[in-house]
Amino acid sequence: MTTTNKDVADSLGKSLSAFETLTGGANDFSKATRDGMGALVGFTQALGDAQGAGDLAAGMLVKLNQLGQKMAAILEKQTARVETFRIGLNRAGVEDSRAFIGGLRKQQDALMDYGVTLENLNKTALSFREGLRQLQTEGFPAQENALRKIAVVNERFGISIDTSIELINNLDTGFSMAGQASDKFSRQLLGFAQKTGQPFNKVFKDFNKSIGTWHSEMDPQKALSKFTVFQQMARRFGTEISDLTNLTDKFETIEGGMEFGGNLNMLLSNLGGSFDAVEATLMSQPERLKYITQQIQGVAGEIEGMTDLGQRAILKELSEQVGVDVGTIRAMMDKTKGGDLERFLSGSKNLGEMNAAEQKRVADENTTRAEKQQQVSDQMISKFAIAAERTAQAATRMSTAVQGATLREVTRTLDKVAPQLNAMSGKLETATKGLKDSNADYLTKMGTLIENLTSSSNTIAGSFSAAADKIDGSVRKASLTGGGTPKWYDVVGQTNAARVKLEKV
């Protein structure tokens, strides 16, 4: 079976339809691609109708011109984005912003599987300049990519850049953790949030908020293990992590533990319970929380058997003694909620981390189609746009210089012409008055007026001609590249010659 132009066109048309269904024309790049495919379909269809090489060439040029205009518009937009990025980085203290953007582009290539765009990386870089403490350290440049990856990838999980920066700062301050170690710690928090079914942003914020407690641990893994227990119990009890850590920290000194434990034991003893302050002092924080909870649960039945007045009184007294609100005391009395402590303690001993493959999978699922399309657009044209931005800046500076020279000459000319215009207006007023005074002298006065106007016009024309010569000289000077005839003159001359030839045809 012979394949015809129509068959090719039909096939391309189906491809175009599939492309539109897939992309939905979500951004400028996909629209330009769609238009380009449409132009190709139209060109293929036109092949069969072409009457000769001339028609074929003309049709090709039209379609190529249409596609070229679309791509030029994309390049212009991308160049403007690069310009915005560059200026923002300059203001943020980056010494060579164009080279820095080039580095961001390389990192974007490495993070394609995470749904990261050039704009994401630029925003992160600017935020780092504002809030990252490590920026001032000698070893920061070697860690920069790893740290920036943490923030930009975490954003895929709904974690703000500021929250990630706070985490990085806390890990550096309290545990002296470098880029790779911080990345692993971040993935452990991601894994914990995913395993427990919690919002990622919630877990990260809770850790940052309670970091002061965990800095007392020399081993960051022990700190993380304790955090997971207290974070989950705080959510189960409907309270804050700080409320629970303040409770367990009462035993951090022997004197404080004895005093607190003795008072609590006295209160619980009246309800048939007990509390061993010495034993509690020797426990770890999570074990201590478990022990306190169990002792309160042990007297729950006695409290429930009291009158309403007695219940309120003892719950209030327990609340004041333990240092949490009555609602938390009621939650601690609930054996179902309190029983979760054992499970949380067990889980804290085998903390894993979200591996790179799983991280990529979740990040990809949380990336919009528009962002994915922007990734492709960045890859295809950003490198060229970075170079084009410098050229555009230089061209604009030259254009501004030429326009400035032109404006100055026009201004000077208008200053010279102004007296002539004033003289003309005066003569017009005189002539008008004369016409009113004597109709008999009409022709004579009009003749004199025309002579005066002609003379003034010649003077003004001469002034503008001289200004034009000066402007031409300024443009030549601004356009020269090492002497000789300006290059733009050659281009204009060639263009005009080509136009004349076309007009003759």
Share in helix: over 70%
Nearest-integer average pLDDT:
77
| Unreliably modeled segments | 22-26, 480-505
Continuous helix count: 23
**What Rg do the Cα atoms give?**
40 Å
Q: What's the total number of strands? A: 0
Task: Characterise the protein shown here.
- Among the domains are: 5-86; 387-504, no CATH class.
- Helix content is 80%, strand content 0%.
- The chain contains 23 helices and no strands.
- The radius of gyration is 40 Å and the shape is elongated.
Task: Write a brief structural summary.
The chain has 505 residues and is mainly alpha-helical. It has helices at residues 5-23, 28-47, 53-91, 97-110, 118-131, 140-154, 161-175, 179-196, 200-209, 211-214, 220-237, 241-248, 254-269, 277-281, 285-298, 300-304, 308-322, 326-333, 335-347, 356-365, 369-437, 442-479, 487-504.
Offer a few descriptive terms.
505 residues, mainly alpha, 23 helices, 80% helix
Question: What's the structural blueprint in terms of helices and strands?
Answer:
Blueprint: H1 5-23, H2 28-47, H3 53-91, H4 97-110, H5 118-131, H6 140-154, H7 161-175, H8 179-196, H9 200-209, H10 211-214, H11 220-237, H12 241-248, H13 254-269, H14 277-281, H15 285-298, H16 300-304, H17 308-322, H18 326-333, H19 335-347, H20 356-365, H21 369-437, H22 442-479, H23 487-504
